[in-house]
Amino acid sequence: MAATATLHLRGIFARMAVFLLLLNTLSSVTCDEQVPLLLWTSDGISSPTQSPPAAGHIIGQQQLTSYLEKALNEGPRNVVLFLQDKMSIEDFTMYGGAFGNKQDTAFPNLEGALMSSSSRLVLPAVSWPASNAVIGQLQDQLETSPLYMDPETLSQLRLNASSPALLVFRLPYGLGADLMSAKEILSGNDEVIGQVLSTMNVQAVPYTAIYTALQPSREAASLSMEAGLGGGRSLLQARGGYRERERERERQRRIKDKAGIHAPVEFKEGEDTCILLWAKGLSVSILRSGRWEEHDLTPSTFGEGVTPQLHGSSCTKTKSKLVLNYENVLGHRSFKLIFAMSQRNYQVSARRWFTLDSVELEYDRTTARFNGSRKVYAPAEYSYRCESVTNFRWPQLVPRSLTDPANQWRVSFQDFQIQGFNVSGGEFSYASDCAGFFSAGIWMGLMTSLLLVLVLTYGLHMIMQLHTMDRFDDPKGPAISVPQTE
User: Fold this and answer.
1) Is 227 exposed, middle or buried (0-12, 13-18, 19+ CB in 10 A)?
2) Please, what is the Cα angle at 408 between 403 and 410, to 5 degrees?
3) Burial 267-303 (b: 16+ CB within 10 A, else e)
4) CA 164, CA 143: separation in Å to the nearest integer?
């Protein structure tokens, strides 16, 4: 039975390899717009059998919606979505042991889940705009908001087979100059998948698992180059040339990523810019019925063609307020995210500092206030930057009181930078980072070094207290008598 299952799984990955070769021969297909999608159900749970697409066919958004509808209408409605940053079919052919080296695969947990599932669907080529919309499609079909989870917090969540849930686990993907770096990252992602599936099996709740990505990790130019060199198997043996091409592709990718960085939010008083705000991610969450419902504000705040509504914002020499206005956020028709800042002179440091006095959420005539003045501050002529500003994990923001509505909210700002005063030329000034110079590791090293120095000093002091005897006993003569009074 195990041999049959192994042969069946090898057949799946072999079909993926054949599909890759077909892509190389189809010049009319743009290879850099495809990501794979894998769907399976928990062990012992059956769902309607769906026929995979023909080789070379790219799944669009409408067809993907029909696949998901058919899977969720008759299958488990507790969905576990593993959403990787980047992934292509080549990741499976190169690191999945597609050519017989199964002991060297980077996907043991994924393969085990596919083998144990009686209902699985492998879509080798899904248009990546369709995969980007998979969260929205699942949210519409399940009629529930997505929960962005960590494997460690999943065990604290209690699922119910009668009520649908959409659990989203974000998986990283980064490719450096080393050939093994991508495999190590994929192996780490596979361990996360195994940990999540083990927790789901412990809870004994039927589920539907989906594994896909936001964008491809390979480009069409690289595929055509590899095809011209004689096929996939020969490329796996020519490691040196592959590394050189991978370095060049990574350099080009970084250039593209740098060019695609969105501009900061800019508020002007007249012709002069007085407030700047930038973040890689802005999100808010509210606690409802014992569950956190999250909403991502980033697409409505930053990006090409996005014009945030800033009415209500103001700035003076001592006070600044940036108001971001949104609509339809977590069921609230009108929603405001407000940053209130001030600056004043401090006599102790003999200079002016600005502080983020509060972060406020206004909705339905209710205001939730977070105090940030104790943690978020910088010299008045600088900007403030922090990798993460939250109120729940190493919090820099705290509710004003125990009865404040802010206790039911979570705010998370990733790669956050703000400047409310002395903005020059529409650009951020020098950034004062929230990371202190003396981290926990540095303090531990200093304390350990100090302890060793103290021990060494004590040892040297004890050695210096040793004295040589000034009288010695002669074995051939009479014994030395030392009077007690001497």
Assistant:
1) middle
2) 125
3) beeeeebbbbbbbeebbbbbeeeeebbbbbbbebbbe
4) 8
Give the C-alpha separation, 364 to 371, whole Å.
21
Beta bridge partners of 377: 355
d(CA 313, CA 268): 9
The residue type found at 234 is: S
Tokens, residue 348: 């102790």
pLDDT tens readout for residues 320-372: 999 999 988 998 889 999 999 999 888 787 888 999 999 999 998 899 999 98
The encoded tokens of residue 54 equal: 């023909």
3-state secondary structure of 37: strand
Answer yes or no: are the C-beta atoms of 423 and 415 closer than 8 Å: no
Query: Is a pLDDT exceeding 60 seen at residue 225?
Result: no
457 phi and psi angles, rounded to 5 deg: -65, -40
Nearest to 263 by CA among 283, 284, 285, 279: 279
Which pLDDT value is given to residue 244? Answer: 54
Read off the pLDDT band of 51 (50, 70, 90).
Answer: confident
Spatial CB neighbours of 131, under 8 Å, sequence gap ≥ 6: 35, 37, 64, 212, 213, 214, 215
* 165 DSSP β-pair partners: 78
Query: Which whole number is the average pLDDT over 216-229?
Result: 50
pLDDT of residue 470: 67
- Enumerate the β-bridge partners of residue 326: 335
Nearest to 419 by CA among 373, 385, 375, 370: 385
pTM of the complete model:
0.43
